[in-house]
């Protein structure tokens, strides 16, 4: 056994952004592991599952500090999955866990499930439904988060799938919800919504951005998708639920369309959306990080609605990485069509990173540009 603080100081965020003010382990990770300690001591191999471990603190803490073995873990973001693998290797704990999708295999027979609370209620609902359907009857589910992000609605969501839901006292501005007594009732995901304009069915798993809705930025970009130059291969970069990819496939039957996203929920949603609209065989959806699975100069057209929030903060880091990825995968002369929050004024950045950039549409909230690869 290693002392907790000595153990935690060895964890890193990489390949995610590293900075002095950014941490790989937070107060919620510590509180979850402390609350789980007694139950961890009673769990045998394969009886512990973890959901949305940010960088590996929960999974590796359960193994390295509490002796758990064959831990099963589902992480929505690929960068978190890769950080867990790096940290496990560095700590000599490679092989102590299994990465799995959020589904029956993850939760089957689990007696303890540790969850970093997701941002949205629908994501929590899908986690709760999944665990209740497959975990052991005596399972304990611990959902931890920052107090400022915890709401009574989270308790209500958990009560849909568990008979007993309570909350611990707060510590260092974090709190844990405790759920027991699973009440399985099947999964309600992916959700489906039929939209008249554009005429499209959108499918979404719980953690997918915007759910079954079509967000405003995507709607703005959709109005311009009849304008890009002819293309053989098109890429929806950060595809989310696949709305732009499906729109391209429906409008341009001759184009090979690829959608990429680092979110497992987004990838599953995009595949379901493509199938629901009859273009599942024509759209390839890949889980990767900033199109790192695609060769250089392999794409004629990229469409992108980049994220501009990380939690409550407006940031540009994610968009900058996607712009650089577009520049790498585009063939010379290929086009990047981007929609973004008008206040962010990305046009100079796009011109520098990708190539000559033209304003297509500017509204108070959103701007559409086209950049041509040098």
From TrEMBL:
Residues 9-180 form the RlmG N-terminal domain. This is Methyltransferase. The keyword Cytoplasm applies. CDD domains: AdoMet_MTases. GO terms for molecular function: N-methyltransferase activity; nucleic acid binding; S-adenosylmethionine-dependent methyltransferase activity. It comes from the Bacteria. PANTHER family: RIBOSOMAL RNA LARGE SUBUNIT METHYLTRANSFERASE G (PTHR47816:SF5), RIBOSOMAL RNA SMALL SUBUNIT METHYLTRANSFERASE C (PTHR47816). Keywords: Cytoplasm, Methyltransferase, rRNA processing, Transferase. Gene3D superfamilies: Vaccinia Virus protein VP39. Residues 200-369 form the Methyltransferase small domain. Pfam families: MTS, RLMG_N. InterPro entries: DNA_methylase_N6_adenine_CS, RlmG_N, RsmC/RlmG, SAM-dependent_MTases_sf, Small_mtfrase_dom. GO terms for biological process: methylation; rRNA processing.
């Amino acid at each position: 056994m290693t002392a907790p603080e000595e153990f935690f100081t060895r964890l890193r965020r990489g390949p995610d952004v590293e900075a002095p003010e950014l941490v790989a382990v937070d107060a919620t990770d510590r509180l979850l592991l402390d609350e789980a300690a007694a139950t961890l001591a009673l769990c045998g191999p394969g009886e512990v599952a973890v959901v949305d471990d940010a960088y590996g603190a929960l999974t590796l803490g359960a193994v390295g500090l509490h002796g758990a073995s064959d831990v099963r873990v589902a992480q929505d973001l690929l960068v978190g999955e890769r950080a867990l693998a790096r940290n496990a290797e560095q700590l000599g704990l490679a092989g102590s866990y299994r990465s799995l999708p959020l589904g029956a295999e993850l939760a089957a027979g689990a007696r303890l499930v540790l969850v970093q609370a997701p941002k949205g209620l629908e994501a929590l609902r899908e986690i709760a439904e999944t665990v209740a359907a497959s975990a052991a009857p005596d399972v304990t589910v611990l959902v931890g988060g920052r107090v400022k992000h915890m709401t009574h609605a989270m308790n209500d969501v958990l009560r849909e799938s568990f008979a007993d839901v309570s909350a611990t006292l707060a510590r260092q501005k974090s709190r844990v919800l405790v759920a027991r007594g699973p009440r399985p009732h099947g999964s309600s995901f992916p959700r489906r919504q039929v939209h008249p304009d554009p005429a499209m069915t959108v499918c979404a798993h719980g953690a997918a951005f915007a759910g079954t809705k079509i967000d405003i930025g995507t709607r703005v970009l959709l109005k311009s998708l009849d304008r890009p130059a002819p293309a053989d291969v098109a890429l929806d970069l950060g595809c989310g639920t696949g709305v732009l990819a499906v729109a391209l496939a429906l409008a341009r039957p001759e184009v090979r369309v690829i959608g990429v996203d680092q979110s497992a929920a987004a990838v599953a949603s995009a595949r379901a959306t493509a199938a629901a609209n009859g273009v599942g065989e024509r759209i390839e959806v890949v889980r990767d990080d900033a199109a790192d699975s695609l060769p250089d100069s392999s794409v004629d057209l990229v469409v992108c609605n980049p994220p501009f929030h990380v939690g409550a903060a407006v940031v540009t880091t994610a968009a900058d990485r996607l712009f650089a990825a577009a520049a790498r995968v585009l063939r010379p002369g290929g086009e990047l069509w981007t929609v973004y929050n008008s206040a962010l004024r990305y046009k100079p950045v796009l011109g520098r990173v990708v190539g000559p950039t033209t304003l297509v549409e500017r509204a108070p909230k959103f701007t559409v540009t086209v950049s041509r690869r040098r």
